[in-house]
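Chain A, query sequence.
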Amino acid sequence: MRRTLTMLFILVGLGLMVVGYVSSAPWGASSVADSNPDFLGAPTVFIIGIVTVLAAALVYELLPARDDDRVG
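Chain A, predicted structure.
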């Protein structure tokens, strides 16, 4: 269970980072004046993605392990 939840946190975080980066990058901008993000919250979405990926370590450590999760 905790492995699945950890992987879910990582995948959601990576997805948010990709969406935030692609939405904030000035694709095809010919000048600095045209280099605004597609939506104003794009950098925030990117940062939330980073925090989500880092929170995956907390999820893995704080959830109790079942007997079949233990190695050894």
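The two ends are 18 Å apart (CA to CA). The chain has a mean pLDDT of 85.
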